[in-house]
Specification:
Blueprint: E1 8-10, H1 17-25, E2 30-36, E3 41-45, E4 58-59, E5 63-67, E6 72-77, E7 94-102, E8 108-113, E9 118-119, E10 125-126, H2 128-136, E11 141-147, E12 154-160, H3 166-177, E13 186-191, H4 211-217, H5 219-225
Parallel strand pairs: 1-2, 12-13
Antiparallel strand pairs: 2-3, 3-4, 5-6, 6-7, 7-8, 9-10, 11-12
């Protein structure tokens, strides 16, 4: 690697631990960060001195970060005045819509979006982004969308990265499941008819799965599996 590679910041969505481990193994100095335009960009970032795998580091001095009782991240300190043609926010604390938590040492972990949160039939709260990031970190899985709201099992709609048969794809999902706690393991999977793209409305402009569209298209198959 070039000597000039000292610090590579990644953000925009949770990064799977397997992917971070792979970067570390080849010597890439990759560190996660977290930020929002409404909060003057960067809110927290890991550094070589303060890094915990899976976290986005610790909040920067200008940011006042707290987690509410529902697990949503709130940011105060330096925030925007508001959106164009909407009431002035006056730099008040921002409810980000993101879910996360602090560990005992003050490292911030971002797990997903509040509006995407799955509450299973057993009452477990799960961020699908977390599971999807772990799935797509496997070299055999190109895209994934996880569902299971009010259901007893989690189902993933999967787009393979390469041509795979049933046994090969099942083996890949099983490998990922071994890294997950029992309550978050993928019980069923559906092989997607086609990749998620903006053209077929299954991918947002931001590159994330269009969950409602995907869920509608595979609703019958999901229902038949559970």
């Amino acid at each position: 690697l070039p000597d000039s590679f000292r610090f590579i910041a990644v953000g925009g969505a949770p990064v799977g631990t397997a992917l971070l481990e792979a970067a570390e193994e080849v010597g890439l100095p990759v560190y996660q960060g977290y930020g929002l335009s409404e909060c003057c960009s960067v809110v927290a970032v890991a550094t070589p001195q303060q890094n915990r795998r899976g976290s986005v580091g610790k909040p920067l001095p200008h940011a006042k970060v707290r987690i509410d009782d529902d697990g949503e991240i709130h940011v105060g300190g330096v925030t925007f005045d508001g959106y164009l043609h909407e009431p002035d926010q006056g730099g008040s604390e921002l409810a980000t819509g993101d879910l996360g938590y602090f560990d005992d040492d003050g490292y911030l972990f971002v797990t997903g979006r509040n509006r995407h949160r799955i509450i299973t039939g057993y009452g477990r709260n799960i961020s699908p982004e977390w599971l999807e990031s772990e799935l797509v970190a496997h070299p055999s899985i190109g895209q994934a969308a996880v569902f299971g709201d009010e259901l007893p099992a989690l189902t993933a709609v999967v787009v393979p990265a390469t041509a795979l048969d049933f046994d090969e794809l099942l083996a890949a999902i099983t490998q990922v499941n071994h890294t997950l706690p029992d309550y978050a393991r993928i019980d069923e999977y559906i092989l997607a008819d086609q990749p998620f793209t903006v053209a077929n409305s299954e991918l947002t402009a931001g590159g994330t799965p269009a969950r409602n569209i995907i869920k509608q298209r595979y609703a019958e198959q999901i229902s038949n599996l559970i």
